[in-house]
Amino acid sequence: MAVTIAPSILSADFANLEAELGRIATADWAHVDVMDAHFVPNLTLGLPVVQRLAQVSPVPLDCHLMIADPDRWAPSYAEAGAHSVTFHAEAAAAPVRLARELRERGARAGLALSPATPAEPFLDWLGEFDMVLVMTVEPGFGGQSFLDGCLPKLRRLRSAVDEHGLEVRLQVDGGVSAETVERCAEAGADVFVAGSAVYGADDPAAAIAQLRGLAGG
Ligand SMILES: O=C(CO)[C@H](O)[C@H](O)COP(=O)(O)O
Questions:
Q1: How much distance in Å is there from the Cα of 96 to the middle of ligand 1?
Q2: Is pTM beyond 0.90 here?
Q3: Which atom of ligand 1 is nearest to the CA of 42?
Q4: Are the beta carbons of 134 and 172 closer than 8 angstroms?
Q5: In which residues is substrate bound (predicted)?
């Protein structure tokens, strides 16, 4: 299974975001956390910044929308040049319709599940998505402790994806580090988001390489 490492810019220096992207040029994707202070109690950045980052980033942008009403706003992130656009199941009114719209606009469509959101309602619809994001912390902030209780959900998704021969990536985000990444890989993840473990390291490239190795890549 291919391993994708996507450092979260949530732990980067927001005053120097363009330069901070340069520090993770050995990663596969840059994970961009869009937070609106409504769906989550934090505010980060929005569409104009993503448009700019998409132009200068050395790696594809993986946009994680932690926003209310993604049905209205997510397609613009696809048009802004994001490689993938992931929205939250808890916030979307029509997840399948929205996924189709994102794909029509040239982006990969991702469905994010917060820790308390079960996978079961979506198992029959997995083929509509390119990726499912299993949040391993409550969305909103970096630097939180990894929630082991999310791993059974990841295993359930991995079984469903493999059983039906689907090409759906399974992403984990939150508390992913050298201590937890192997557990995520064993449970079926193949895309790993890490914020503080990469941007908090003296050598982000070495941290990326270590995570990749531990994840089996
Ligand atoms: O989506 C997020 C929080 O909502 C972040 O991407 C995530 O928490 C990454 O930070 P860390 O690796 O430090 O936990």
A1: 25
A2: yes
A3: 4
A4: yes
A5: 8, 64, 140-143, 173-175, 195-196
**Looking at ligand 1, which atom is closest to the CA of residue 141?**
3
Residue with structure tokens 């769906």? Answer: 39
- Ligand 1: which of 9, 24, 32, 33 to mutate, most ligand atoms within 8 Å of CB? 33
Asked if 119 and 153 touch (Cβ cutoff 8 Å), the reply is: yes
Task: Determine if ligand 1 sits within 6 Å of the CB of residue 99.
Answer: no
Predicted confidence (pLDDT) per residue in 150-179, tens digit: 999 999 999 999 999 999 999 999 999 999
Architecture of domain 4-215: Alpha-Beta Barrel (3.20)
For residue 70, give the H/E element and its range: helix 70-79
Enter the DSSP assignment of 32: E
Q: Where are the alpha helices (DSSP H) in 42-170?
A: 47-56, 70-79, 95-104, 151-163
Residues 6+ apart with CB under 8 A from 125: 95, 96
Collapsing DSSP to helix, strand or coil, 200 comes out as: coil
Instruction: For residue 72, report the distance from its CA to the centre of ligand 1, in Å.
Output: 24
Closest CA to 8 of 75, 59, 81: 59
The answer to whether residue 202 is catalytic is: no
* Complex ipTM more than 0.95, yes or no: yes
